[in-house]
Amino acid sequence: MRKGVPAIEGGMPSRGTFLPYARQWIGEEEIEKVTQVLRSEWITQGPVTREFEREFARAVGARFAIAVNSGTAALHVALAAVGIGPEDQVITSPFTFAATSNAVLYLNGIPKFADIESRTYNVDPGRVEEQISPKTRVLLPVHYAGQPCNMDRLVALSRKYNLPLVEDAAHALGATYRGKKIGSIGRATIFSFHPVKHITTGEGGMVVTDDEGIAERAYMIRTHGIDKDASKRFEKEGNWFYQMITLGYRYNMTEMQAALGLCQLERLDLFLKRRREIAEHYQAAFQEMQEVVTPYVEPDSEHAWHLYTLQVRPERLRVDRDRILSALRAENIGANLHYIPVHLHPYYRQNLNTREGDHPVAEGVFQRILTIPLFPKMTDHDVDDVIHALKKVIGYYRK
Ligand SMILES: *Cc1c(COP(=O)(O)O)cnc(C)c1O
Does any ligand 1 atom lie closer than 6 A to the CB of residue 71? Predict the structure, then answer.
């Protein structure tokens, strides 16, 4: 192992330019398709968006797809369509982006956190069951980093207590659980098209479901609770009449975004293949290092590898995780942190009375975890830089 001096200690950085932890991959085809839309008559939600929805639904094995303008909006719409209202409790993971539980708060519901499993970092079904009360309305698991949750046990809980599953699959486009695609299991599933995710539309998201009632409500809630597509209203032969049925929002996607999404979706398999290749490279490079814990991969699911995380083992190092993270950044490697457990954020502490100690597994993992760069456009050279930098930093600080 290399024993160079880390840049943070005065040595030379591992590379000259900063490598982010994630970045989109936009090709010429995307630019052309978006330009075509810009030159056309219709630029807000219309036929291209409907085509994107159809293709997306097919890709994840769902009957209906509802395109919206962010993953957060998708969560909001999905929960509203399933029927979350004031005081309704929704059980989710604390080890996620705040969007997951914020969407519950938008509807005046109450997020209840259940601690995670120490190996997969996904919500622990045993802890979920402990949180179920007469006020529970929905189970909202998050497929952390792209590895599916234990869906057999979550589906069993969903049936036993008659609670719909809404899955936050913002990390898990292209993942499968025991041969079933993520998007085809729960009552509704949401995806995000933020630039760091598997495919991007700049900003965007999707709700998918097999349930016609949920789909109909979601289409309405997306656009002010109005029961008609805007494009139909403006067609010459169309009807000028419309009614607002329920309180909805303004969450629709534009045709530019949908055109981008369609092209990206075509390349999803290639993106996934490259993500898996890089993850395997990392696994092989770090498996034998005693100072870090590599991600555990469930044998019977296909990981979508949105994130590649490592846990440092402080007992074998002279410094803590924060120093390792800073040292990697000084090497020009965009290490990052996913996630500060949501229940530790000041807003949650103040408004939901959450506190340190509530979810010890998530809190422990948070102290030791870091994310290293993983995105399909990374070159083999970039991957080698990350491996080199990590070995250098860990080697230097090893006890
Ligand atoms: C990205 C993300 C979201 C929200 O998606 P946006 O498109 O950024 O609104 C929700 N949940 C998780 C777990 C995410 O990573």
Answer: yes
Q: What is the mean pLDDT of residues 62-71?
A: 98
- Catalytic residue chosen out of the listed positions 33, 112, 197, 391: 197
User: Looking up tokens 């103040």, which residue turns up?
Assistant: 350
**Structure token digits, residue 79:** 């929960």
Q: 235 near 8, Cβ under 8 Å?
A: no
**Torsion angle in degrees (nearest 10) through CA of 60, 203, 38, 242:** 80
pLDDT surpasses 90 at 238: no
Name which of 122, 145, 131 is nearest 90 in CA terms: 131
DSSP E strand boundaries for 212-352 = 292-293, 301-302, 308-312
Gap between the terminal Cα atoms of the chain: 15
Distance 94 CA to ligand 1 centre (A): 14
Predicted confidence (pLDDT) per residue in 320-332, tens digit: 999 999 999 999 9
Check if 194 has its Cβ closer than 6 Å to any atom of ligand 1. yes
CA gap 217, 248 in Å, rounded: 9
- Whether 197 is a known active-site residue: answer yes
| In the block, residue with structure tokens 């109005």 | 226
Which is it for strands 180-181 and 176-177: parallel, antiparallel or unpaired? antiparallel
Beta strands 292-293 and 308-312: pairing type? antiparallel
In whole angstroms, what is the distance from residue 206 CA to residue 43 CA? 19
Cα of 124 vs centre of ligand 1, distance in Å, is: 20
Q: What whole-number distance in Å separates Cα of residue 160 and Cα of residue 154?
A: 10
Which of 72, 95, 105 for a ligand 1 pocket mutation test, highest count of atoms within 8 Å of Cβ? 72
pLDDT in tens, 119-177: 999 999 999 999 999 999 999 999 999 999 999 999 999 999 999 999 999 999 999 99
Q: How far is the CA of 171 from the centre of ligand 1 (A)?
A: 8
Close Cβ partners of 94 (under 8 Å, ≥ 6 residues apart): 113, 114, 115, 116, 341, 342, 343, 344, 358, 359, 362
Nearest ligand 1 atom, CA 142 = 13
Helix (H, G, I), strand (E, B) or coil at 173: coil
Ligand 1 mean position, distance from CA 83 (Å): 21
The count of other CB atoms within 10 Å of the CB of residue 355 is: 11
**pLDDT of 2 over the 60 cut:** no
Q: Which residue has the tokens 């590599």?
A: 294
